Amino acid sequence: MPMQTCMGATLRCSFGLTPSTLVVLPENRVFTNGSADANILDHLPLVNILPFGACISTANPAVEIATLAALGVPTPAPCVPVTPSPWVPGAITVQIGGAPSLSSNSVLMCVWGGVIEIIDPGEFTVEVPQ
User: Would you say 128 and 37 are in contact if contact means Cβ atoms under 8 Å apart?
Assistant: First the structure.
């Protein structure tokens, strides 16, 4: 069964070169072992979703420009996630702050084609029924 995801969860993007950390603001006032619990609406770039080091997606204009400047040699560029849609699927049966809880099996799509996964939910005591 998937786990509840909370502040400090480790994330990985399929086009990012380094892992990142989920930031969950304590506005929902739900905590697990002292860490703020996340819901599917915790997807805002540079607020909840921090950069993944460098990006290698050719759909990212910064990568395209860096590659052109390197005379066609594929060149990573600094990652700036663009995640306008919430995480999916979330835990439909558990609500946090009026939205489905963020379960450890949820994914988030970046506009540049990256798939962001939760590789460590930040805690391992609360299972989330689907």
Answer: no
Domain assignment present for residue 128? The answer is no
Reported pTM? 0.94
Distance CA(67)–CA(58), nearest Å, equals 9
H/E segment holding residue 69: helix 61-69
Domain range holding 116?
Answer: 10-120
DSSP state of 62: H
Tell me which residue of 33, 36, 59, 38 sits closest to 115, measured CA to CA: 59
Residue 128's pLDDT band (cuts 50, 70, 90): confident
Q: Tell me the Cα Rg of the chain.
A: 16
- How many domains does the chain divide into? 1
